[in-house]
Structure formats: structure tokens, C-alpha cells
Amino acid sequence: MVTTTSSVVVPVDPRHRLDEARLLQYLQASIPGFLPPPATLHVLQFGHGQSNPTYLLHVELNGVEKRFVLRKKPPGKLLQSAHAVEREYEVLAALGNGKTKVPVPHVYCLCTDSSVIGTPFYVMEHVEGRLFLNPSLPELKPEERRAIYWAMAETLAAIHLADVDSIGLGRYGRREDYCKRQVERWAAQYNLSTGEGKPSPDPNMLALIQWLREHVPAEDRHIGSRTGIVHGDFRLDNLVFHPTEARVIAVLDWELSTLGNQMSDIAYNCLPYVVKNKETPPSAKGYGFDEESPEGIPSLPEYLAHYCKQAAVPWPADTWTFYTALSLFRYGAICAGVYLRMLQGNASGGKRAEDTGKMALYFAATALKLIQQDSMLNASPAQSLSRSSESFVNLAACQAEDDNQRKTFGFAPSARVQELRKRILAFMETHIYPSEKELSALAFSDKKWTIHPIEEQLKKMAKSEGLWNLWIPADSAALATHLLNEDNQVSGTRGVGERLVGAGLSNLEYAHLCEILGRSVWAPQIFNCSAPDTGNMEVLLRYGNAEQQRHWLKPLLEGNIRSGFAMTEPNVASSDATNIECSIVREGNEYVINGHKWWTSGAMDPRCQLLIVMGKTNPKAALHRQQSMVLVDMNTPGVKIVRPLLVFGYDDAPHGHAEVKFENVRIPVSNLLLGEGRGFEIAQGRLGPGRLHHCMRLVGAAERAMDLMVQRAKERKAFGKTLAQQGSFSSMLAKCRLDIEQTRLLVLNAANELDLYGNKVAKGAIAMAKVAAPNTALRVLDNAIQVHGAGGVSSDFPLSHLWASARTLRIADGPDEVHLGTIAKLELQRVSKL
């Protein structure tokens, strides 16, 4: 039997009766075209759901009948911020303006005058279609079930792709720290639903709250590709489907909607894969499947991969358990609230509402079981699907199914990237290459630690041409834009953010551009794309709080200041970050830092105002939870620059590399990044893209060497013919081209994997690129130096400086040996699984 939106209505619950005469009068006065007097009104109530009472309104006059749906707040004392019908109306009105692909019913009016029917309400159109109350879809054939689930995933993706700023929902909620706030919100709601004179708190719920607080993903701290509209209660029975087609025609129940981390939405939507109906009370069936794997319904990896493809978001392997546990916790807190309202006589839903008390206990227990298990998802969708009983034919089109397919993925730059590439090449030829000698002359003079006016002039030109901050990944561009625009609204210069955050590129797209910047040691800073600033800005974007971002990230994005990264120490092998000895001790509202660092790149720059310092806050904690990262103002008492360090005789002025001592340096506790013991986590997140940026630039350095080598070989004569005519040169040149092309593919493949699967899955590809790139660049540069003869080792050509920089990158960001160990370990694991 097919359930329709008209077949789930029942007579109005006596507790929820309305003043129909007053309501009819209000509607006739408020809705244009509403049937006038003496029209009659007949009211029925939707029996499905326990939250905001919802009614079907039949209005009739002289044989003409119209139907509307009314949703209102329930009567009685309500939990704070719950049952916000006003927000439901706002989001439905915005999504229904024709600018999105989200199917929602048309809304007619919002009434906040409680004197009309007792509480605020809104009225929307009645959409006639099919409702599926059981996620197992027993009324459908297997092939129909699959189509329904695909449509559901695509509808959620459409919601998540909606541009909130363009439809007027930019202030609908805070986008950052969504999960953290959700944990606290529902913990508070749960506490209000239990206690003295109420049901007793569940120990499992209390343990779950604590676990969630300690495991909020780092990605929750920033605005990125996973932030936007969150429905909050997106599930099958809140969708109206076309009467005959597998197509959603209306999304209902937006009571919990806001802006935030959208991965929580898809996890909540996937709870039927976790909840077992056989373990729930009889009246509470419908939360999960009737059987383990209903025929025709996609497996969890299949369904999630389809959503990820449609929403253009990465596979959430590392964080899925958290999001699922959060969803179960929210469900449990909601059930506890409904159960309390039932006890107080305010909840609709009858026996189902009564059983919500048992469901609250079940959800908490289920979440704790999941937490104690291994990760719910494999590292990639392909690995997860390898365990599935059915193949997912669409996955290959979304994200490559295995390693071989990934390696043949198309890496050619898009038309947009090709255009940017042409503009950068033109800028390099016109402005940067001609300025290199003058910039280098100052860097070798007694004024080396000052900034050449040409550099600042070139930076302004790069900004004006839209070639600024191109490194900012697509998923961080929204936050960067918001931050830069925030302080410009009053001054009338709103929109500056859009000009300063680059083009919202993926790592793969940026790779084609970053390579060009590597052709000159001066280019990266001209475009505000140089290390360690890019890595530090990425840390602040992903892990900094709002105040830290306003104070430090904004001037870094604008290029007004520079920064350093203080991790490496002279007394320990710092390639193993657990060796770090620098101490960060809390004393009251301050941290006291004592430590000795060196190779703190950027610290010599007169514009450097910020150091991100890694040290130990708890030496007794687990090995990888001892380290923390803090923000240190360069002018803080106790920060002492010991000396500039030389790289094969180059001090890289005015940027420089410093030996730094921290002697009883006191900073406020608010300068801590992410939390105590999260330093290693931040370091790993920082190093993935940062290592690749170095690799990209190294390919560019090799290309510059090739150009100079060929030019020199064609012009220089020895023994009666040009160097290019010498047989040994041809062989050397061909081998260099082979090296560069192979390395470029490794780098592009690593960037692609980083985009599709994230740091953890891409670590092998990144390690291969990190070993190959500096070694290739060194071989090509060495050959170019050889072709240039004595000139090659001089400062008259950029080759020796490029070589010195490339040689350091066999050590910086992890020595070759560490990356080779990673590659070997992964290879051993791969073979052992065959």
C-alpha cells in the first residue's frame, strides 16, 4: 500500500485543537487569493511525527476546494531554541525563490501572533505525493528502492550545494565550529530533559557527550567545502516523492536547519544503516532497516560515495565514526525531549512518543558500541566497496576504483587554469625575471635585511591582476573571503575578499600554477604563495578560532605581515616530531615557553610578526598527544634571534632562516591552537599540502634549469661547434626531460589523491613525490650548472641558488629516508593483502 501525503492524516488531537474560526479569518486576510467568506475550513492533523504539530487544511467554497498545510509550535513550556517555526519559514522562503535546485513547498505566510491559534505558525502549499515511512521500502521492488535512495542522496547534495549568500541565508547561522556547538547544544537540551522531577540521566549518554567533546574533527573549525545549509533532520520520511517517479518533489521539516558542517547531515541520513529495527521498541520501527541488507537498497559505501560525487566532497574515512556518533547522540537527545513532553502531556505521536524514552537509551548505547569498533569506513570508497556484495558501477566515474585507475586519471589543466597559467607566465616574463638581479643585489648587500621597494610594488601588481593567494584551496576560500570582507563593510570596500583569495582552486589545479612560481626564488612571495606563510595560513584557516584568524590570518592574507614556523631543534633529530624538547607549561591564564629552535624560516624578515611554535605541553601523555602548537608574537619578551643561518652560503635575505631561543616567553592561553595535545595532528594536516607545494615548485625549478641549459648550449661554442651539437649533451638533455615528466606526473597524481581522498590516503603518493621532486631538480640543475661551466656556480645565474634551495628539500618537511620508509611500509601492506 502506497502512503500519500493525504493518507497520513487523522482527526485533530484534543490537546492540539485550533480556533478554526479565528484561523480562517486570519488566512483570508493574510493570503492573497484565499477563498473568501463564506468559505468553510476543515482541519485534520498529520499523525506522522512528534515535533511541531502539523495540520492539513481543507478550504471549500461553492465546490472549489484548496488544500494547505499549517505547522505550529506545540503548546506548553518548550526547551530553549526548540520548535523554531520562524526559521523553518525563513529557509523555505529562501530555497523556494527559484535560485536553487532544492524542491520545497511554497510558503504563504508566517504568523508570530500567538493570540490567533495559541502559538506561532506558518502556512505552506500542500504537495500531493508519496511518503515512505519505512527506510526498508517494503512496498517497492528492489530496482525501485535503489532509485529512491539515489534520488534522496541527490536531493541532500542539492541542499548542500545551495549558495547561501546569494539566496539571503548568509546570516542564517554560524558556519564554523558547528559540531562543537551541536554537542554543547544537545548536551544542554538533554540536561534540561533529565534530572530532578524528570527521567534520570543515562550514564551512556553522559559518556557519549564526553567522547564527542574530545573528538570534534579539526575540519569543523573552518568554513570549507563541507559547510553550508544543514537540514538537521534529513531522512526518508521527511521527503515527498513524485506520485509515480523516483524524484523528490518536497523536502519537509526544516525545524533544525542552520548553517554548518554538512557531513553531519549525511551521517544522520545514513543512520538506518546503523540502527537495527529488531532491537528497537515495536512502535519505534522505522529508524533502521527491517533486515541487515534489504534487497535493492545501496550499501552504506555505495550510498555515501554517490552523495560525495553529487556534492563534490571528499570521502570522510577518518571522521565518519564521529559524525555517526554525533547523529545518534542528537537523536537520543531529541527522543529524551519528546519523552519529557509526552510525560507533560505536550507531545503528539501517541505510543510512538511514549517509546522515545527507550529509544534515547538505545541510541546512546549504539553510539558507544560504534566508538569502540574500528573505523566504519575504509580509507577510500573503493576499499569500502570491495567488501560490498554488489558492485557500484558509478563509482569509477566519481572517484577512481583502484590504484591503477587513479594513476591514469586525467591531469590536464582546465580552460580556467590554462588562462591563469598564461597570465602568470606573462607576469614572470614581464616583471619578475627582469627584477631578479636587482632583488638579489640588495640581498647580498649590507642592507640585506630590508625590503626592496620593487618587491612591494610587484606584490601590489599581482594583487591588482588577481594573481594573489592562488594557493588557498577551494574548501577554504569561503572563510578567507568572509574574513577579508568582514572589516570592509563599513568602509564601502566590500568585495575586497573576492579579489584576494585566489580562484578557489583544487590542489591539482594549483599544481599547474605553483610549478611556474618555482622558476624563480623570488616569485612565490610576490604572489603571497611562499612557505612558511602558506602553511601557517592554512593552519590558521583550518585550526584557528575566530579571534586568532582576525588577529593573524587577515594581515597574512593581505600580505601586510609575514610569519615563521618554529619546530626544528638543534639538539634532537627533529624529523621525528616526538623528539621535540621545547616546553610549553601552563601557569594560570598563560603559557610559559622555554626552548631552542633553529631553521625557523621567515623569522629574519623585518615583516615577520608571528611564529607558530611547536612544543610539549604534557610530556607524560601518549606519545603523539604530548605536543601542542601556539601562536607567539615576535615582539614578546623572551623571544631572541640568535643568528641567521646559511644554506650553502646563502642566507636567503631578507626572508632568512633563524636560530631562535625562547626564554620564559609568556603568552595568553587563548594563543593555543585547536587544543592541548593536538600539535602532531596539526603538523600532519599542515605538511600534506605544504610538501606538495615544495614539489610543485621544484618541478618549476627544473624547467627553468632546462630553459637556461638549452639556451646556453645553443649559444656557447667549444671545439668548433655548439654545446648543443655535442653528443653527450643530447643524451643528458633527453634524460633530464624524462626525469621531469615522470616527476611531474607523480606530483600531479599526489595532488589529485589529496583532493579526492585527503591526507591520510594520499600519504603514499605525497611521499613518492617528495622523494622524487628534489632529486630530479638536483640532477637537472647539476647538468645545467655543468653546461654553464664556471658561470653556473656563480651568482650571475640563478642556478646555484635554485640548486641550494632544492638540496635543502631532501631534508626539509621530512628527509628522504622518512618518506622512503613510508613508501616501503605501504608497499609491504599492499602485498600482504593480496
What this model shows, in words?
By secondary structure, the protein is α+β, with helices and mostly antiparallel strands. 44% of the residues lie in helices and 14% in strands. The strands form seven sheets. The chain has a six-stranded antiparallel β-sheet with strand order 2-3-4-5-7-6. Strand 20 (717-718) and strand 21 form a beta hairpin. Helix 5 packs antiparallel against helix 8. The longest helix has 37 residues, at 679-715. Mean pLDDT is 87; it is low at 386-409 and 489-495. Its main location: mitochondrion. Keywords: FAD, Fatty acid metabolism, Flavoprotein, Lipid metabolism, Membrane, Oxidoreductase, Peroxisome.
What is Rg?
31 Å
> Assembly type of the shown chains?
single chain
User: Given the C-alpha coordinates, what overall shape results?
Assistant: elongated
Kindly estimate the percentage of residues that lie in beta strands according to DSSP. Answer: 5-15%
Largest sheet descriptor: 6 strands, antiparallel
Report the mean per-residue pLDDT as an integer. Answer: 87
**Could you list the spans in which at least 5 consecutive residues all have pLDDT below 50?**
386-409, 489-495
Structural class, by secondary structure, is alpha+beta
What's the tally of helices?
26
Distance between the termini: 48 Å
Family: Belongs to the acyl-CoA dehydrogenase family.
Cofactor: FAD
Pathway: Lipid metabolism; fatty acid beta-oxidation
Main location: mitochondrion
